[in-house]
Specification:
136 residues, mainly alpha, globular
Length: 136
Amino acid sequence: MVTDVGWGGAYPSVFGRVPGTDISNAMDLARGGHFQEVPEQYPEDAWYSYDDQTCDYDCQNSEYIYWALTSILGAQDYPGRLEQIGREWKLNTREKVKEKDPAVYAILTNPAYKLPTVLPDGKYKAKTFTIQSYRK
């Protein structure tokens, strides 16, 4: 993901995928504690409970950014979606993220990081240009 080496490289204390960064601290709150490995069971009040045993701490971090950002942008906000994803992510709307997870909301909506603010829709317009030869 672009956050891993892009934003993580540019802002390591914010987006670094190791314990103690801003995004990792937010994730640990969302998971109900700091877990280097996926726990047998997450605390009942956790809203992020990704349980893929092959996904280590830094992978969990990437998944957390994905869920939070796509929810903020509206990609998870449609009928029936919460029922599909609620086992691992409970904040499927911008409003829910803003209210329940203000730490990640503040990070992912901070204009200084220039993260996406609009969900891609697959409709793009190419810019046409002409290349002229300058041979003499």
